[in-house]
């Protein structure tokens, strides 16, 4: 319970372009639950620029304290175990920023997110990026890049996936992708229209806006 | 809006022991959950800081089981600092330079508010067990009468730990529009079987003392000090964590090199508990102890709302900050989480933090930097939302 599941490298970056890219997907004035909200930077950004009614969940006491000190409503809790307590359709968006790969049960976390909100926004490091592939191929070692900076033995990232893996999982969950964007290592969006395999090769991170599929009508 | 409150004819006074005292007239009795009636109702309280012109900066502090109104002043009986001296004062989280802070003795207590040691007007003798059994909700009703008397429509914050936290929850459920923000600390939405069990041990210890005299000891010039001291000793263990007890006392012997093979206080922990018990009887009334422990036992907020805690807070606009301590086994984090879940289910604005501390239940009464930082941050943000001036502007 003590180690923050939010990767340190992401927490310590002063200005995060990826947060701006997440915020761009949120409609103004909506209700947002940020799971793994860290020090509350995204919630603060959403409150300041989108007037959202935001709530957060964060594992580390330090993160929760920072959030509460900023006036954010944040609960100390664990994405893997505590989402089940949230009411169905309680929020417009449930956000999981750079946390999916650190959860014990990523699939279950996504299921809960799409239950709590009709829309979910998920960002994660892309293990399919060419640098990662090359690193493993050429060096024969577990890749360490700017977005995946931990050594294999002390990484909080226990469920890494590629963009293609993620897209497959979304389909299996009865949801679809509304928007998707790949980011470079600095978190800036890669502004090209390209097929998935290109993003999967060049994106260091990805952000997806998911929407729960409408229930099938029984005629 | 405060001006619209009906004027109440009350008798106000003050003295060094009780602080300020307000006595409500016979047409303003306290009708209790148990069907009893306290009249005239007397409430003793302390107030710190100044009420602003808008009457929007008032904070009510709710004391724990054996606390009292002396939150931030030297205690008139013990000479020690008030029970929340670490949290209340100039520049402290409950900043007396910014907020008007009210702390009242609960009904059923023994330091100026109506309780079993008060004189029963019907008999001219102390009430004893003729005082109606009161609940947490009764305590809060009496506090609401005091807040009315002070001309305060909405409290900026209601805060308290342990039994005080139960009062905070009751305030938020009973008077949601009167509570802008709430801090229930180290508390629970209901008393568990274990909680009731410990309280029953304490009550039986009091009542087993021959000097208790069926609760009529005051008239007979005696006090059940031994029974009350034993009750306090047992309760005190529940306020501390096992690791802290082990670290502080271990198996260390008291002023001796070897066991005496007797029933003296050979061990330091024995000596410590005996001291705690004896110090307690100097400042607390045995019958009051029965009443306040009973009030906690009867507390089950969900039961008043069809068994649903979420229903108790439905539609609330109060901002909550729930705090627990990881080594508190009396009101454990799981109890605080139950509160948080209920608030979440209703979409309430709620923050929750479990503070790392080895101090057990009593952690909320001692200097804990993380707890102080959390409280400061929560109040600062709530003050901004309420339109109160920032700390440096005040």
Automatic annotation (TrEMBL), chain A:
UniProt xrefs under Gene3D superfamilies: Vaccinia Virus protein VP39
SUPFAM superfamilies with a match to the protein in the record: S-adenosyl-L-methionine-dependent methyltransferases
Lineage: superkingdom: Bacteria
Organism (species): Methylosinus sporium
Name recorded for this polypeptide: Methionine biosynthesis protein MetW
Coiled coil spans: none
From TrEMBL, chain B:
One GO CC term on file: cytoplasm
Subunit structure comment from the entry: Homodimer.
InterPro entries named in the record: AB_hydrolase_1, AB_hydrolase_fold, HAT_MetX-like
Pathway it works in: Amino-acid biosynthesis; L-methionine biosynthesis via de novo pathway; O-acetyl-L-homoserine from L-homoserine: step 1/1
Name of the coding gene: metXA
Molecular function terms from GO: homoserine O-acetyltransferase activity
Domain of life from the UniProt record: Bacteria
Catalysed reactions, semicolon-separated: L-homoserine + acetyl-CoA = O-acetyl-L-homoserine + CoA
Localisation: Cytoplasm
Organism: Methylosinus sporium
GO biological processes: homoserine metabolic process; methionine biosynthetic process
The protein's enzyme class: transferase
Record-given protein name: Homoserine O-acetyltransferase
Keyword Iron appears in the UniProt entry: no
């Amino acid at each position: 319970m003590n180690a923050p599941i939010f990767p340190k490298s992401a927490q310590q970056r002063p200005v995060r372009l990826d947060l701006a890219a997440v915020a761009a997907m949120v409609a103004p004035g909506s209700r947002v639950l940020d799971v793994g909200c860290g020090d509350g930077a995204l919630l603060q950004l959403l409150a300041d620029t989108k007037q959202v009614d935001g709530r957060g969940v964060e594992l580390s006491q330090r993160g929760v304290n920072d959030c509460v000190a900023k006036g954010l409503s944040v609960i100390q809790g664990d994405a893997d175990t505590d989402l089940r307590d949230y009411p169905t359709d309680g929020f417009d968006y449930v956000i999981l920023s750079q946390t999916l790969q650190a959860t014990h049960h990523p699939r279950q976390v996504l299921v809960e997110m799409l239950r709590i909100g009709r829309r979910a926004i998920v960002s994660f490091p892309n293990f399919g990026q060419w640098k990662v592939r090359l690193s493993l191929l050429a060096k024969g070692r577990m890749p360490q890049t700017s977005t995946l900076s931990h050594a294999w033995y002390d990484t909080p990232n226990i469920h890494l996936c590629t963009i293609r893996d993620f897209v497959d999982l979304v389909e299996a969950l009865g949801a679809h992708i509304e928007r998707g964007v790949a980011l470079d290592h600095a978190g800036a969006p890669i502004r090209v229209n390209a097929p998935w395999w290109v993003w999967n090769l060049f994106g260091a991170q990805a952000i997806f806006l998911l929407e729960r599929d409408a229930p099938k009508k029984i005629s | 809006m405060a001006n619209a409150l009906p004027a109440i004819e009350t008798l106000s006074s003050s003295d060094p022991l009780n602080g300020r005292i307000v006595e409500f007239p016979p047409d303003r009795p306290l009708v209790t959950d148990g069907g009893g009636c306290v009249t005239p109702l007397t409430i003793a309280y302390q107030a710190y800081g100044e009420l602003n012109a808008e009457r929007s900066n008032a904070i009510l502090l709710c004391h724990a089981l054996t606390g009292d109104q002396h939150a931030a002043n030297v205690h008139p009986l013990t000479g020690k600092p008030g029970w929340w001296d670490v949290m209340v004062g100039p520049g402290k989280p409950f900043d007396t330079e910014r907020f008007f802070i009210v702390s009242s003795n609960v009904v059923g207590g023994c330091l100026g508010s109506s309780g079993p040691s008060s004189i029963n007007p019907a008999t001219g003798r102390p009430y004893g067990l003729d005082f109606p059994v009161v609940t947490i909700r009764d305590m809060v009703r009496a506090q609401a009468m005091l807040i009315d008397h002070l001309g305060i429509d909405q409290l900026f914050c209601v805060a308290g730990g342990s039994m005080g936290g139960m009062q905070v929850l009751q305030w938020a459920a009973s008077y949601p529009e009167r509570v802008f923000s709430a801090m229930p600390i180290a508390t629970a939405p209901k008393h568990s079987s274990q909680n009731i069990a410990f309280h029953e041990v304490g009550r039986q210890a009091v009542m087993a003392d021959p000097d208790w005299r069926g609760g009529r000891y005051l008239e007979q010039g005696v006090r059940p000090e031994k029974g009350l001291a034993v009750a306090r000793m047992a309760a005190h263990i529940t306020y501390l964590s096992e690791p802290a007890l082990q670290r502080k006392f271990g198996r260390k012997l008291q002023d001796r090199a070897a066991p005496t093979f007797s029933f003296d206080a050979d061990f330091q922990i024995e000596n410590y508990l005996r001291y705690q018990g004896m110090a307690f009887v100097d400042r607390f009334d045995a019958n009051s102890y029965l009443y306040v422990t009973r009030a906690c036992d009867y507390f089950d907020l969900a039961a008043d709302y069809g068994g649903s805690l979420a229903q108790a807070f439905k539609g609330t606009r109060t901002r909550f900050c729930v705090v627990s301590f990881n080594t508190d086994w009396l009101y454990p984090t799981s109890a605080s989480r139950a509160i948080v879940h209920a608030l979440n289910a209703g979409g309430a604005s709620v923050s929750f933090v479990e503070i790392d501390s080895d101090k057990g239940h009593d952690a909320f009464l001692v200097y804990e930097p993380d707890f102080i930082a959390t409280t400061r941050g929560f109040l600062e943000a709530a003050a901004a939302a309420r339109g109160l001036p920032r700390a440096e502007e005040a």
